[in-house]
């Protein structure tokens, strides 16, 4: 056995430890990339009151949101005014049987007034205020162990009672007899917390309003607890996550004995992680919207959730652009060296990367196909898992195939050189 063979065997443990460290750093960098991306989005959108309110507050003019609000507000106003009871009192005994059919006509009249209110600046301001307070509640519940002051369960709600007050005020101008008993409550509806405003309205009308009157519950205080905790952690540690990602990624490349290959692997894995995050965002979107059963409200919920997640989707798109640009830069810098040479460190004829023999070009193609599938296919947790598993299996098979071919080539070279 030659001295070269002995030296090679003596360095194997150190080389194996070095390769393990590179793999660990690559895995950590991908985890940090995912958390850091969520953290940047959370800091810029989810926990930034001004940005959040500007995004969701503008949805007051969205047709889907207005359609859902018109239906909801009309039902709430009809319930608060007890229109059927009012008509029964106004009609003489033989005609009071018409109270129920006439309620439908009054509902149409009220809905027309609601739609007029939804087109006013007063509604736009009230909607932005409701969104602003709901977001403040979200931040409070996410970052505090305490429950909200005006609820017992920590619910996050959009308070639409002030908008109901605007509708009642408008009705007072066109049909004062219909809202005569609630005109004294308009100031309370506009300014008081939901519980106090409802109590004042019930006292004025003598009607017991149902629980949840005038508010839209967007979270039960626990259904999204895990997601909110993850988002809050990412937001709080966003700077550390970004710095650690850079350190781990640079460390993996620096430690690697095949730095070009590791850099290509880092870029490919980053593209996959970003595509998975985008798919997960759409899965979360669908999951939240699916909790809304009413078709009209589903469209409104879809518009609102997408407005919140849009910042994350844009961020992921830009990050993927950076990754792709980095991959192109690597190819341009090494354009006289094939991708297979980057992976194997053996001298091979230069050529275009798409003509490079397996496994290097096949691995890159597999990553590109997986990223494209995750980026453009419909949102599905099962589909996302299937694509990721298929990619991992494909890469493992190609890697083993390449290793086997490499060993055969190495044995052939050793045999020709007379190494024993």
Keywords for this structure?
420 residues, disordered C terminus, mainly alpha, 2% strand, two-stranded antiparallel sheet, elongated
Protein described:
This protein is mainly alpha-helical. It has two domains: 204 residues, no CATH class; 171 residues, no CATH class. Helix content is 75%, strand content 2%. The protein has 17 helices and two strands. The protein has a two-stranded antiparallel sheet. The longest helix is centred in the last third of the chain and has 39 residues. The C terminus is likely disordered.
CA-atom Rg in angstroms = 31 Å
For the sheet with most strands, the description reads:
2 strands, antiparallel
User: What is the share of helical residues?
Assistant: over 70%
Strand order of the largest sheet: 1-2
- How do the SSEs run, as a string of H and E? HHHHHHHEHHHEHHHHHHH
User: Could you say which structural class the secondary elements and strand pairing correspond to?
Assistant: mainly alpha
* Number of self-contained structural domains: 2
Low-confidence stretches: 147-153, 345-359, 405-420
Q: What is the number of helices?
A: 17
- Mean pLDDT over the full residue set: 78
Instruction: Categorize the overall geometry.
Output: elongated
Structure summary, number of beta strands: 2
Provide the β-strand percentage band: under 5%
Distance from first to last alpha carbon: 6 Å
What secondary-structure arrangement, pairings included, does this model have?
Blueprint: H1 3-10, H2 12-46, H3 49-57, H4 63-81, H5 83-90, H6 99-117, H7 121-143, E1 156-159, H8 161-174, H9 186-191, H10 194-205, E2 215-219, H11 225-236, H12 238-255, H13 259-290, H14 295-333, H15 339-344, H16 360-376, H17 381-417
Antiparallel strand pairs: 1-2
Helix pairs in contact: 2-11, 2-12, 2-13, 2-14, 3-7, 4-6, 4-14, 5-6, 6-8, 12-13, 13-14, 13-16, 16-17
């Amino acid at each position: 056995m030659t001295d070269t063979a002995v030296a090679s065997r003596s360095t194997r443990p150190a080389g194996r430890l070095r390769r393990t460290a590179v793999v660990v750093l690559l895995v950590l960098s991908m985890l940090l990339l995912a958390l850091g991306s969520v953290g940047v989005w959370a800091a810029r959108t989810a926990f930034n009151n001004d940005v959040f309110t500007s995004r969701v507050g503008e949805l007051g003019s969205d047709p889907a949101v207005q359609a859902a609000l018109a239906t909801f507000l009309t039902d709430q106003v009809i319930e608060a005014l007890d229109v059927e009871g009012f008509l029964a009192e106004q009609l003489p005994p033989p005609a009071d049987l018409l109270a129920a059919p006439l309620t439908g006509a009054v509902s149409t009249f009220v809905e027309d007034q609601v739609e007029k209110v939804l087109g006013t600046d007063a509604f736009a301001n009230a909607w932005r205020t409701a969104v602003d307070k709901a977001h403040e509640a979200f931040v409070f519940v996410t970052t505090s162990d305490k429950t909200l002051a005006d609820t017992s369960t920590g619910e996050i709600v959009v308070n639409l009672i002030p908008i109901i007050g605007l509708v009642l005020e408008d009705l007072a101008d066109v049909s004062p007899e219909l809202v005569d008993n609630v005109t004294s409550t308009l100031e309370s509806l506009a300014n008081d917390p939901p519980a106090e405003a409802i109590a004042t309205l019930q006292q004025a009308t003598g009607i017991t309003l149902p629980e949840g009157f005038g508010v839209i519950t967007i979270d039960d205080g626990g259904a999204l607890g895990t997601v909110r905790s993850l988002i809050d952690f990412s937001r709080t540690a966003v700077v550390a996550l970004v710095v650690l990602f850079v350190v781990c990624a640079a460390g993996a490349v620096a430690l690697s004995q095949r730095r070009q290959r590791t850099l290509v692997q880092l870029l490919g894995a980053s593209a996959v992680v970003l595509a998975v995050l985008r798919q997960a965002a759409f899965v979360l979107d669908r999951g939240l919207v699916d909790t809304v059963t009413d078709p009209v409200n589903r469209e409104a919920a879809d518009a609102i959730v997408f407005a919140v997640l849009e910042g994350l989707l844009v961020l992921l798109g830009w990050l993927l652009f950076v990754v792709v640009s980095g991959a192109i830069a690597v190819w341009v810098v090494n354009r006289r060296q094939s991708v297979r040479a980057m992976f194997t460190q053996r001298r091979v004829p230069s050529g275009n990367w798409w003509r490079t023999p397996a496994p290097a070009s096949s691995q890159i193609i597999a990553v590109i196909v997986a990223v494209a599938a995750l980026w453009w296919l419909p949102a599905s947790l099962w589909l996302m898992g299937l694509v990721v598993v298929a990619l991992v299996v494909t890469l493992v098979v190609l890697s083993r195939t390449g290793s086997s071919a490499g060993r055969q080539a190495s044995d052939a070279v050793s045999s020709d050189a007379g190494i024993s």
